[in-house]
Structure formats: C-alpha cells, structure tokens
Design brief:
Number of strands: 18
CATH topology of the largest domain: FAD/NAD(P)-binding domain
Structural class: alpha/beta
CATH architecture of the largest domain: 3-Layer(bba) Sandwich
Number of domains: 2
Order of helices and strands: EHEEHEEHHEEHEEEEHEEEEHEEEH
Radius of gyration: 21 Å
Largest sheet: 8 strands, mixed
Helix content: 10-25%
CATH class of the largest domain: Alpha Beta
CATH superfamily of the largest domain: FAD/NAD(P)-binding domain
Distance between the termini: 39 Å
Shape: globular
C-alpha cells in the first residue's frame, strides 16, 4: 500500500491551493481528482471569478482577502502566469443598500476609504455604460478578475507528479486515513477533503448542512464594446430590487459576462441539468437592459456552475451561505473545506495554507466564523 503524510481529496481551487501549500512545506502529499483543469464538470471551472478586496458579507473576510491578494501575487511570481487582473469593483443598490453600506464600512475600517463615485449619478458619469437611478448608493473598491482556470493550472503545474487523476473516497482507520481509488488504496496520516458540492457524498454528516444549487451564466454582446472594455468599465455588483446581478468588463473579447447571484434551483451535483437557457437568464438580461444598457445585448454563450451553500447555523447563529473550514469533530485527522457558497474562490490562495496548517499543526484553530460547531449537530457543549 502506498503511503503519504496528507491526502488532498478534490483539486479545484481550494484543494489545489492546499496541495501546493503542503508541498511548499516539504510535506509528502498527494492530491486526488478525476477531472482535468478546464473540465466543465468541475465546480471551479470557467475562466474567471470576481476578486473583491472588501466584502460586504462578513468582517472576517477583510484579512482573508488581504492574505489572498498576497497569495495570488506569489503564485504569479512562482508560475510566471497572470492569475489576477486588477480592476475596480463597483457595487450599487437603492438608497440604504446594506451591501454598499457594509463594503464601504469595511474598506474605511481597513484604512482604504473609497474615493470614487458614491451615487448612481456619479457612477453614470464615470462609467457611461451604466444608467443607474441617480439616487442609488454606490461604492467603488479595489478588486479585480481572478483568472480561475489559469490559477488552477498554475497550482497543478507546481504540484506536478503529486496528482492522482482519479476519484477517491476517504475512510478513517486506526492506522490512518485511507484514500481509496478504483485502482489503489493510499494510506495517509491525515486528509483534507475539499470536494466542493460533492463533499456531502464523501463526508455524509455534512450533507444535511448543504444545498447545492444550479447557477446560470451568460455572455452578452453589447452594440459597442468601447464602453465595457477592460480599463473603461469595472466589475459590477448590483443589489437590484429584481435580484442580485454581477458582471465583468469585456476582457476576453467574448462580451460581458453576467449572472445572478441569487440561488437557483437545488440539484444533484452529479446531475446539473441541461445547458443554460435564455429563460433562465432573462432576469439578468432585463437588469442589464435597465441598469447597464451599455453592457446589454444578444446572449452569445451560456454556462452552468454550482453553488454549495451552507444552511443557517443554529448553535452560534449565522444567516447561512458561510464557509466550512475545520477539522472533522469525529476524527480530527480529517480536515474539511466546503461550502464556498458562491463567494469563496477568490480566497483560495489564502484558504489553501489555512487547510495545510489545520492538517499539520494540532494547536492551530480555524476562524470561529467557519467552524463546524456553529451547527448544533457538531456543538460540543
């Protein structure tokens, strides 16, 4: 039986970052994933994700985002590949928008108070592709475009020779944690399970905490690309009454990528359903036509991705849609990392080293916001 110190199950952005962090510390680690980079069946697939320096969801994200920025910069230096395109992030919503208020507060608290447009009227003047209501609240913060597949390629290339291109199950035994593939069993001292929406199948006690939702994405072809090109147009997040919509400047000559951030239907992670339809993206199209007419146009491409969303916690209440980053209480040799709830990818370069520390350092504790004991099923009195 082959042996290693740590087995990493799942090599999306989180798992790949964890594997590289382990190898950088000289640890004998192996990563397991049947999918190559770029496979449309992977939950980290697709060219890009939004990177936000300040995040309205939680104050816990400010330090995490700073560490992630340093991590992406380090990955670029190590790999010689660009993985982060810096670009402002504009967030907007009706007067009193909690999204805008929180992002502005976190930026100010971190010593980086926003200096750009603060109203819809000012945003429209600065970025003519927008037609926001003049009285809307706006904040523009530092951020960018994370090149997700480029980042995964860089992680995997740096871990060359330590990746097993097979699916693996995990079984805790007195001798260690077994990573079982169709062809072999590898005995590890510890394991990190970062299997995204599939983690409930590998760690059954997590399944009741998760909702897996189908999320559709589209690329829209505006009549004029000058107003929405990279450099003239920001990443945008609109807290619109009709639903939360986000999008990117046209940085790939594919059009403006946009999607709704509200949850789609619950699905089986092994059955995502048919390709995305114009009906599913109709609300996004309508929002663009109304609020970002310079980015609106015919739908030219579509994609489907998955969100793995946590339910609301009850032992230490939160509203749900928060990460799980912790050791498994029944066996602390197993570290779990999921769910990202649709906003975790940008932090992968910071979360990977955290997972490595959880696997290697018994005294290291995760952020309480991400611990499993916030759920009563895992509370320890």
């Amino acid at each position: 039986m082959r042996r290693c110190d740590v087995a990493v199950i799942g090599l999306g952005l989180m798992g790949s970052a964890a594997l590289l962090a382990l190898l950088a510390r000289g640890v004998d680690a192996l990563g397991f994933d049947p999918l190559p980079v770029g496979s449309p069946l992977g939950s980290s697939h697709g060219s890009c994700r939004v990177f936000r320096r300040f995040n309205f969801e939680s104050p816990a994200y400010t330090a995490l985002s700073a560490a992630a920025y340093d991590g992406w910069t380090a990955l670029e230096a190590k790999s010689g590949r660009q993985v982060l395109i810096e670009c402002p992030v504009l967030e907007a919503g009706p007067p009193g928008s909690q999204v805008v208020r929180a992002s502005r507060a976190f930026a100010t608290g971190a010593g980086a108070p926003p200096t750009g447009p603060s109203t819809g009227a000012e945003a429209n003047a600065a970025y003519p592709a927008f037609a926001l209501p003049a009285d809307w609240d706006v904040v523009v913060n530092a951020g960018g475009i994370l090149l997700a597949e480029a980042a995964m390629s860089a992680f995997r290339a740096a871990a060359e020779g330590r990746v097993v291109a097979e699916a693996a199950n995990v079984t805790a035994t007195p001798a260690g944690v077994e990573a079982r593939t169709a062809g072999e069993t590898v005995l590890a001292r510890r394991a990190i399970v970062a299997a995204g929406p599939w983690i409930g199948g590998l760690i059954p006690e997590l399944k009741p905490l998760l909702n897996i939702t189908r999320q559709t994405v589209g690329w829209f072809q505006p009549a004029s690309t000058d107003r929405v090109r990279l450099g003239a147009f920001p990443v945008f997040m609109l807290d619109a009454p009709s639903g939360f919509v986000y999008g990117f400047p046209d940085f790939e000559a594919r059009g403006v990528k946009a999607a709704g951030h509200d949850h789609g239907p619950v699905v089986d992670p092994d059955d995502w359903g048919p390709p995305a339809t114009t009906v599913e993206l109709a609300l996004v199209n309508k929002t663009l036509a109304t609020l970002v007419p310079g980015a609106a146009g015919p739908l030219s491409e579509t994609d489907v991705c998955l969100y793995a969303n946590t339910i609301a916690a009850d032992a230490r209440p939160d509203a749900g849609e928060e990460f799980i980053i912790d050791r498994l209480p029944r066996d602390k040799r197993i570290v779990v990392a999921s769910a990202c709830s649709g906003h975790g990818a940008k932090f992968a370069s910071a979360i990977g080293p955290i997972l490595a520390r959880l696997a290697l350092e018994p005294s290291f504790e995760p952020d309480p916001a991400f611990r499993l004991d916030r759920f009563s099923a895992f509370a320890t009195g």
